[in-house]
Amino acid sequence: MSFWILGDRNDGAVLDAYPRNAPDGWRYLESHRLSSEFPTDAVMGFSPSFPDRRKVYDFVTSILDIRIVSERVRRIVLELAPDDVEFLPVTLVNHQREVASREHFIMNVLARREVIDLERSDVRMGAILKREIDRVRKLVLKENLEPGGPKVFRPMHLRVNTMIDDTVHEALAGAGLTGCGFFPANGWNGKGT
């Protein structure tokens, strides 16, 4: 069984602020449903720190440790892993506050999974959040993981990242989506996402 780190770093627009009147940013890392608290008119604007970055891809770069994805991504993930995520609709606006997309969503990952072998990995744990990995040099996954379980998840001890299984990886990679990257989780060096 293989897992992949899902990356969204690309040359497109960058998002650097959560929608107004939405749940606080840390709550998206807690793997809880937020749809009942999420505003129906949520807007996310392109970062003024990146004025030349205006392209809108299926995966939009975010410095917020959340994934902003298109309707195309939403359909694929809901078909394969409907219980692992919820999608919170957002309108993306460009630097002039003009609508760039009404078909993007925050992919709020609800599932967590214990897959990292902390003893064999080369990682540094956080100074404040001592159970969370702060830096990865080489990630090693546990051997003989049980089949089944979440297909899209935030790994225990590394909640700022999203992992996907082979099924989801094959579907996303085969769909011709833009703005995303996939990195084998076992042996991952912490770069590229």
Automatic annotation (TrEMBL):
This is Immunity MXAN-0049 protein domain-containing protein. Residues 37-183 form the Immunity MXAN-0049 protein domain. InterPro entries: Imm11 (IPR012433). It comes from the Bacteria. It holds the Pfam family Imm11.
